[in-house]
Amino acid sequence: MQRTGLYYPYVHFRDAAWIKAAALYLPEMARVVPEGFRVSDPEHVRVLRDELGFVQDIDPADAVEAASRHLLRVVEERGEEMRNRFGVTVQQDVVDAEPSPPGARMRVGTGAHHARSPWGRPLAGLYPGEMSPELRRALFEAGLAARRERNSFTHGAPGVWLGMDPALAWVYKCALTAELAARTAFLPVTDQEAAHTAVDPWDTERMAAVLLGGAPAPAGTGDLAGRIGVLSVRCVLPAGLGGVPAEKIVALRKTYEPEFLAYTDAVARTAADLREELAGIRSPQALDTYVRQAVHREFDVELVKLRNAMNGVGLQTITTSVSTTFDTPTSAALLSGLIGTVGGTMAGSAAGIVAGVGATAVGILGGARGRRDAALAASPVSFLLRVENGLNPDTAVRRIGRALRRGAGAGG
After folding, report:
1. Number of C-alpha atoms within 13 angstroms, CB side, residue 285?
2. Staple 330 to which of 64, 199, 281, 326, CB 3.0 to 4.6 Å?
3. What is the pLDDT of residue 197?
């Protein structure tokens, strides 16, 4: 089953390259947007949202009560311990940090005035609609939260925020995400490396253990599809993906939709098989090892096989056949002239070159194209090859082949 991603622990995506990559291995991405929360998306997110329908906003109201109930019990049962570790004081009115896993480095804003805990930690903010009224009241009374009027991460959006310790905010956001995922069958995914823990249930005991017992959040296997997707697509992405226009991502998805769906099915199958095999493993390092092995076996190796199957088909067949159809001096001149003019309109000398190739090129292209299409249709990783060809810079061989196809009327 192809699963919609569920982004956490924030509303706004933090990494442009990550969200673009996610659009290449997930059908859609939902994000938690409480009623009344005003989003402020950059251009690349708006393109993915409006032109592809990739980004979907979901109200967490159905999951708020259950997630709030778990944290409320921790506050009721271990309130003094919680206050000693996560208590807040009323100072400045600015929320200036983001939810962060216990012990992780916090992302802090640039404001001059910070709301801080007694230990000097900047406070993170949660939107009131993310919690039940009972939990909000309990946090205020226990000294674990304070009202804040400004949030340096919301681009000036007005509203009242609950300022609290970043670790407490993060644990609650994970619990809310897990509850929402259980109700929607969405797949929790994140661009925060330290936060791959929202998939398995976050009950009262787990919250208390992570917050007060110093226990690390256990590694779960529920987010394997997300890990497999990002690892499998990473091998074909250009280094500067953040600067690649989102419109290219949209075009790839729309043009090669059947191949994209076959690829996401392969990701889902691999994740399901691996989840069953690794059900008893709780070591994050061991899980990462097995996931990487599975990605190499099911995607990297298959991609190499597909490239090999394409060898002698398409571009390499074209250039090889052109060079062997004529004697060496002529073929060298033809190819040299073509390289020099292929960036233009194929007029003049380039048109003459294609005319010189004539029926030989057309026949080569026809057979090559048929073999190419058959190889692509048979491979679950053909979409990755489309991504590689569509997002990476053109090579001379690709430009030659594309020019020959246009000139000979063989299509792209």
Report:
1. 0
2. 326
3. 55
- CA-wise closest residue to 101 among 195, 8, 11, 186: 195
Say which residues have a Cβ less than 8 Å from residue 400's Cβ, sequence separation at least 6. Answer: 315, 318, 319, 335, 338, 339, 342
Provide the pLDDT for residue 317: 37
Q: Are 197 and 170 in contact (CB under 8 A)?
A: no
Residue 38 CB contacts under 8 Å (≥ 6 apart), including other chains: 157
Strands 29-32 and 55-58: parallel
CB atoms within 10 A of CB 127: 21
Q: Which two tokens stand for residue 8?
A: 């956490």
Neighbours of 392 (CB within 10 A): 14
Each residue's pLDDT tens digit, 262-285 = 999 999 899 888 888 887 777 778
CA dist., res. 402 & res. 392, Å (int): 15
Q: What are phi and psi of 93, to 5 degrees?
A: -100, 15
Residues 181 and 32 sit within 8 Å (Cβ to Cβ): no
Q: Which tokens is 117 given?
A: 């805990």
Q: Could you check whether the bond before residue 9 is cis, i.e. omega within 30 degrees of 0?
A: yes
CA-CA-CA-CA dihedral for 219, 220, 226, 231, to nearest 10:
40
Task: Quote the pLDDT of residue 219.
Answer: 54
Contact 382, 263 (CB under 8 A): yes
For residue 97, the 8-state DSSP code is B
The parts of the chain modelled with pLDDT lower than 50 are 108-119, 155-156, 196, 314-362, 364, 395-397, 404-405, 408, 410-412
